[in-house]
Amino acid sequence: MAASLSSSGCARLMTALARSSVLYNSFESRSLHVTAVCCKNQAARIRIGKGDKPLTYEQAHHPHQIAHRKGWLSQHTSNLKGVEGAAERTVEDVFIRRFMFGTFHGCLANEVVIKRRGNMLVVCALMLQKLPPQKFYFLIGYSESLLSHFYKCPVKLDIQTLRDKAVYKYL
Amino acid sequence: MASLTRNVFLFLGRTNVSGLGIKEITNRVTYATALFANSTSGNKGLPDRGGRGSVGRRPRREPGEPRTEKMPLDQDWTSVYPSATSFKSNAVPLPVRMGYPVKRGVPPEKKGNLELLKIPNFLHLTPAAIKKHCEALKPFCTEWPSALDTDAKCDEHFPIKVESTDYVCAGPSVRNPSARIVHLKVKLSRFNLDDHARKKMLKLVGERYCKDSDILSITTDSCPLRQQNYEYAKYLLTVLYHESWKIEAWEAEKTAADMEEYSWEDSLSQKNMLDTLLRMKVAGEGEDAEVRKQLLEREDVQDYKDSVVRLKNEGASESSMLQYKEAVRKVFNV
Fold first, then answer.
1. Confidence of residue A47 (pLDDT cuts 50, 70, 90)
2. Superkingdom, according to UniProt (chain B) (predicted)?
3. Within an 8 Å CB–CB cutoff, is residue B85 touching chain A?
């Protein structure tokens, strides 16, 4: 920012400072340029296109349809009154989703559903049949043991495989 | 189409080689056969797909038919869903549909339906499964003692009731700080207390006593463990009982303001009443003390006493005010 100021401008500022002996406040009188705000929601929304994009039920419904037409992807009791640990559960959920996306790369047909039954973490996912079953078994076992050791609680993976994604509509 | 062309190449190879030496012939032949083997072992025979596949790639296995097709009608459902698992569309033979339908359409089917996965299902808790659970739990249960068949009998034999709560939540930790709270409830009528002891106990206990149900409830949560809180509650009960029986020296200084109930004897109201009556009656009927005693034993004075005591103890209500009015009328013959 300092480099963009011309040398003469700098000199003028410095002289002004020296003359008026004002405190550092005068340096911060730089204007802020704002454009008009576009009041548009864009979270988790896929906009209408040509009609060739296949969408799943999850992608086709916007977030305001949660509790109307969509359920919740993650369930735990920490959001009830008087129960603690909501933030920790949310961070765990985020990590588990990224982990599943990376471990089963390209195989996930839909979002990962996370359930907690007491101490146990149940991760339910729908997969495409891209890998041979032996590889799937290995990846499932690997994920389960790694996540159990990481979170110090039993982690179970409930995987179901499909031939291809279940298309709800085309946008 | 692809296999035909491959065959043609083979023949071409053979004819070309006829003029050359033996080594070349064998080389050419092996090359041709290798190519032949490669082309048929590819994926569905699509030439562009086959370019990606490596040598010796196994053919893709067809997924078998779903389990629902092979389920007999009288199968044991408890072995299909023995414990809580997510909804498996090819293990549940019901034609379930879930979701908001597309325009001029139907809700999406169960295959690949994430909404059915999200919700908790109770397929593992059919009546048959619950019966099995009960049968399995029966050897661990004992009979309720037959002598304790009414609530009154339970109260009589077990007057002290201790209550504490356990908390379960979905998370790796079992600990909940609210689990240390202990409530101890007991009826005061079960205690051997005389008048003074009862009054002292009520004063010591204060808010923890409920007059309507005669239950003293002690709640302890000052210790970090439930065991400690329980023992502290028992200790408190013991101490209260013993302390209420003791008579300290300073208790003799109890004034009228400390009294729990209003007593008419030696009160301002009694004095006023007697003075008024004496003034009403003809003076000089005998000794003062004698006259007072006689007056006190009169029925209307007794009624007045009852009404005043009731007013002071129970407060001003419709019936108590009426009673007071009647009593006053009777005394003054109004």
1. very high
2. Eukaryota
3. yes
Contacts of B118 in chain A (CB under 8 A): 71-73, 75, 113
Smallest CA–CA distance from A113 into chain B, residue: B118
Is A113 in Cβ contact with B120 (below 8 Å)? no
Contact A116 B102 (CB under 8 A): no
Q: Do A57 and B113 touch (CB under 8 A)?
A: yes
The CB-based long-range contact list for B179-182 (8 Å cut-off, 24+ gap) reads B179/B226, B180/B221, B180/B223, B180/B224, B180/B225, B180/B226, B180/B228, B180/B229, B181/B219, B181/B220, B181/B221, B181/B226, B181/B229, B182/B219, B182/B220, B182/B221, B182/B226, B182/B229, B182/B230, B182/B233
Q: Distance of CA A133 to CAs A124, A127, B43, B60, B268, Å?
A: 17, 11, 18, 11, 98
Q: What is the pLDDT of residues A155-168, one digit of tens each?
A: 999 999 999 899 99
Contact A69/B99, CB-based, under 8 Å? yes
